[in-house]
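Try this one yourself first.
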């Protein structure tokens, strides 16, 4: 295949964690031959006996797992899903690419299966993959952890500086509600009453305890709705 290239195998300088010989590489169901799998901190590489192979960058690897389902594949292996395309260049593939260009939302996916001759090495291969991929976190995941809101400076507020959040009691909250807000609150209270009431009815029987619990629950929920209503 055209993407197979000749390059020196990863070594200690690349943070080699696992080297597994006699490992067959399979791409999208097509066998690439038997060679050596190199799991290094810098990249995941495979080379056949002639020195041809490929490397996968960890940020492109979306999934890796040990597959023992013999119905999915006849031999146990290390399954790796990559967000990239590895195909043999041909007239047909070029035509397919032109058609695929019309749909930019479809992300290419390639499925690799690394089948070691010694299946007992699968756990060590998987562990090495986990350790190496952890060194290459997804930048999008890091960005999602950023907090865009304003931080509450406890020390500044203790010194009387900055704006202090406003809290209202139930009665104060009602007095600050607009007409629309009061109508919304009444509608929510009606819905809440029906919901809470249904919890204390069973086969048409209501006891004195259930009535008292219902009234207390409805009263507490009504206070919470009033206190948490947005002031407009």
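Now uncover the answer:
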């Amino acid at each position: 295949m055209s993407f197979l290239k000749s390059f020196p195998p990863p070594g200690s300088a690349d943070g080699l964690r696992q080297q597994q010989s006699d490992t067959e590489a399979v791409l999208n169901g097509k066998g690439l031959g038997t060679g050596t799998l190199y799991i290094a901190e810098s990249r995941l590489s495979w080379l056949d006996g002639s020195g041809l192979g490929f490397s996968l960058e960890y940020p492109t690897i979306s999934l890796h797992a040990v597959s023992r389902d013999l119905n999915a594949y006849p031999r146990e292996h290390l399954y790796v899903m990559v967000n990239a395309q590895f195909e043999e260049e041909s007239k047909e593939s070029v035509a397919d690419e032109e058609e695929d260009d019309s749909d930019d939302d479809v992300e290419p996916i390639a499925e690799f299966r690394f089948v070691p001759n010694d299946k007992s090495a699968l756990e060590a291969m998987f562990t090495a993959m986990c350790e190496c991929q952890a060194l290459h976190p997804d930048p999008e995941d890091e960005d999602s952890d950023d907090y865009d809101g304003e931080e509450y400076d406890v020390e500044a507020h203790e010194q009387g500086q900055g704006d202090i959040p406003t809290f209202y009691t139930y009665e104060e909250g009602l007095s600050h509600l607009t007409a629309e807000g009061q109508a919304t609150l009444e509608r929510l209270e009606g819905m809440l009453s029906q919901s809470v009431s249904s919890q204390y009815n069973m086969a048409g029987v209501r006891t004195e305890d259930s009535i008292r619990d219902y009234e207390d629950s409805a009263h507490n929920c009504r206070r919470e709705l009033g206190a948490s209503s947005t002031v407009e």
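Discussion: DSSP finds seven helices and eight strands in the chain. Confidence is low (pLDDT under 50) at residues 89-95, 198-208, 224-232.
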